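User: I'm writing a tutorial on reading structure tokens. Could you give me a worked example: one chain, its sequence, then its tokens, then a sentence or two explaining what the tokens reveal?
Assistant: Sure. Here is the example chain.
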Amino acid sequence: MSIDDAAFAQLSESFAGTLLRPCDEGYEETRRVHNGMIDKRPAVIARCQGVADVVAAVNFARENGLEISVRGGGHNVAGRAVCEGGVMIDLAGQKGIYVDTRRRTAQAQPGLNWGEFNRETQLHGLATTGGVIGTTGIAGLTLGGGIGYLMGKYGLTIDNLLSAEVVTADGSVLRAAADENEDLFWALRGGGGNFGVVTSFEYQLHPVGPDVTGGLIAYPFDTAREVLRFYRDFTASLPDELTVLCGLVHAPDGSGVPLAAVIPCHCGKLAEGEAAMAPIKEFGSPAMDLVSTIPYASINGMLDAKYPKGALNYWKSSFLSDLSNEAIETLVEQFSSCPSPMSSVIIESYHGKATRVAPTDTAFAHRNQGYNIAIVSQWTDPEKSDANIAWTRDTYSAMEPHMAAGVYVNYMGDDEVAARVKDAYGPNFERLRAIKDRYDPENLFHLNQNIPPSS
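And here are its predicted structure tokens:
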């Protein structure tokens, strides 16, 4: 869509950050997000310096009938951080963070990723539940729920969100917290980017590390069935301090050799962590054992190299009703034909504090103890896209008989957002729609896992 030159000139006069149009230096690099399959060209990229710039960009887009996309870390697989022909509000440069060691809180801007966030909080031996990939942006992960290595002990990221500053569709700047704009605060905790642009997050921090007990232990693929059964039985009863992921992966040396991996993280006392690891250490004959005392920041970034920016990504995900023997057999059979050495199947165990929150206490409704599965396809050759997408879809279809209702909103691909939006929000969908009616009745913020207003 063409931009009115007079309106753009008016925006430029007061904008403190940088405005990029397709002819400008830096535009091509800035429009790219983590998923290399996403290739969209905004009419304007508004690289905001502060909140006033965000307000100006929102008003400009609304008044000129332009779509808005909002970029924090740009990591989301659906690529909704960038739009075609509209205004991309780019917050990636906003990386301020203040850690209050007395209150154990952090005030953080939306351009931070979890590696950067942890670098500051771990100076003081503090952390909150963040993503399992350090390059993931704090904003998108938080607004969608927030699965991470600390969720058993401290809950999801949203369970540690104390307040947020939000620019709404009419250009207002609001504080959302338990004692102010409570409905908006409820909706932000799992409702994604449907209600405005969050320009600041306040988190509760907890004593963690700097050292924890964890890492990765991998086994030959011919023992994958036994590994997954062990994982199921082991995760049936865990202390809150121990969160364990499992995966069917490929060797990190680029050989393409498939492996079955267990990734534990114990955030309590080191002696207790060592004892908690004993069953894992004693199981089977691992091909690789990297489980030890490790800095929390290191375990949070341990898998970063496996998810490089620019790789082509296609994901499908769902919660599992049970990790049954039949489900395990299906996963192993499907992974044996995986076409890319970069791809993986990740299983996340939900337990502990993350499951002791009522489904309607936050917009994130999926609070049952159990498992989440993510079929994560990555590759680099565009000519192999059809084969990788087909394998992902076939694997998902094969697993459907074992799936529970619901999907983690942060793992939804671009081609399933509309079809599965009610699955993502579950029993909270109608309440979220009512809040959408109040704060964004025209659906200005719709390039997300969208909750359409009732009108």
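What the tokens reveal: The first strand starts at residue 18 and ends at 20. The domain at 211-417 is CATH 3.40.462.20 (Vanillyl-alcohol Oxidase; Chain A, domain 3).
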